[in-house]
Every structure is written in structure tokens, then in C-alpha cells.
Design a protein that fits this description.
Layout: E1 11-14, E2 34-39, E3 57-63, E4 75-76, E5 87-88, E6 101-114, E7 117-123, E8 131-138, H1 141-144, E9 162-164, H2 166-174, H3 181-189, E10 207-211, E11 214-221, E12 224-232
Parallel strand pairs: 9-12
Antiparallel strand pairs: 1-2, 1-8, 2-7, 3-6, 3-8, 4-5, 6-7, 10-11, 11-12
């Protein structure tokens, strides 16, 4: 019998994504998505992050914490296959995995030292706010870049044009919003986060996405995304 290993998070990620809906399905698809890994007591010594700034990108080992009580299945329906065809969970990046662990390559932005405690700022994240981080490793170009076959997901998703209504533009101009907030909205919605089966037919539903402390309303019209309104939460 294999030995069981118990692991604990070394930190928690603060992210603009407050709900699973709309999170990019892969890292670095929304470069404007920034987050801060607040290292936990016992792991937040500045010594832990010494020389981290010599690397431009990092691997994050994290947990799908909102799925932990939902279990997993050997077969799942990947969005890239239209959400109807089943395939083996180990042939996908599904969030419903045997051990609930994920792996993301993100861009390193900075080390933050405050009161002799270290945090790490990263960008291009695809992680929910409050995600537990189990490990951080430097991305090594000569070994991690591989000319690989990518099965049913050989190419990046096709992007839609994103437009803003006058109401949405007025909100952005009149309110104190995070840096690159408008860019982040564009990068997320251009990927059309609707369920795959919704993307194949007419859909006049108005959707909402929670980013930072704002509620972004949008819909797809003539194959373009229109941001109809933005509200504080």
C-alpha cells in the first residue's frame, strides 16, 4: 500500500476573482489578473523568498478548495470538447480531481516585505480568491518549455470583441476602480466564460461576473460581448 502524505498550505492567494464563473480556464490568458500570495506563519520569513526576483515566472501548486466536498469522477466533460463529450479526468485539467490539486504557471511581479513578513505578487492568475497555495517553484525555461502535442486543446481559445455601454463607461470614469480593471474585464470576457453548450446557440441572457468588489453585467450580442453595466458589491 502506498504511504499517505499530509500537506498543509504555505499561504493563501488574494485574487480579483470572487466566484468560479469567469475565471480563465488556463493561467496567463488574462495577464491583467494580479494576485498576492500571503505566506502563512512559519513560512513568511523573508529568507523563504530570497532571490525569487531572479525568476520571471513561477509554478504554483494549489488546491481547488471549493470542490473539496464534491468528490471526483473518472470521466469528465471538458469545455473544449463542447461540454458534452466525456473523457478521462487525467486527460484533462478538470477541477474535480482525485486529490484536488492544481498547477499554474504565472508571472512573478514582486516580493512584498512588511513587518518582516513576506508576500508574493503574481499576475496572469487563474485562481479563485482564497485559494490555498501548497508550494511555489521557479519556472525553468530550458526544462519546462516543451514542444508538446496537446490533444484536444492544441490552440488558445478564439477571442470575442468586447464593447462597453455608455453606462459602463460612465461608471468606470466616475469611480475609483483598481488599476487595469477595464483591461481585466476585456481579457476575461473576450474568452466567453459561458458554459460551452450556451456558446453554440442564441443566448440573450444577461450574465454577471464578480471582480474585486464590483459586479460586472454583460451579454453576447451578434457574437460580440457587451458590458452593459457595472455596480459596486
Amino acid at each position: 500500500m502506498l504511504n499517505k502524505t499530509t500537506i498543509e498550505p504555505i499561504g493563501v492567494l488574494s485574487s480579483p476573482f470572487k466566484q468560479k464563473f469567469s475565471i480563465p480556464r488556463q493561467p496567463r490568458l488574462a495577464p491583467a489578473a494580479r494576485g498576492i500570495i500571503k505566506l502563512s506563519d512559519g513560512y513568511n520569513s523573508p529568507d523563504m523568498v530570497r532571490d525569487l526576483e531572479t525568476f520571471s515566472h513561477l509554478w504554483l501548486v494549489f488546491g481547488f478548495h471549493e470542490n473539496s466536498d464534491k468528490g471526483w469522477q473518472p470521466l469528465v466533460r471538458p469545455p473544449r470538447l463542447g461540454g458534452n463529450k466525456k473523457t478521462g479526468v487525467l486527460a484533462t485539467r478538470s477541477t474535480f480531481r482525485p486529490n484536488g490539486l492544481g498547477l499554474s504557471a504565472v508571472k512573478f511581479e514582486s516580493v512584498i516585505i512588511k513587518d518582516n513578513m513576506a508576500s508574493i505578487e503574481v499576475s496572469g492568475i487563474d485562481l479563485l480568491d482564497g485559494t490555498p497555495i501548497y508550494d511555489v517553484k521557479p519556472y525553468i525555461n530550458y526544462s519546462d518549455v516543451i514542444d508538446a502535442d496537446c490533444g484536444f486543446a492544441p490552440d488558445a481559445p478564439q477571442l470575442k470583441t468586447v464593447n462597453f455601454s455608455e453606462l459602463a463607461v460612465s461608471f468606470l470614469n466616475q469611480h475609483d476602480v483598481p488599476n487595469e480593471f477595464e483591461v481585466l474585464i476585456e481579457q476575461i470576457l473576450a474568452q466567453d466564460p459561458r458554459p460551452a453548450y450556451k456558446q453554440q446557440k442564441a443566448d440573450d441572457k444577461v450574465y454577471r461576473v464578480e471582480l474585486y468588489n464590483f459586479d460586472v453585467h454583460w451579454q453576447v450580442i451578434d457574437d460580440c460581448v457587451l458590458v452593459t453595466n457595472i455596480h459596486p458589491i
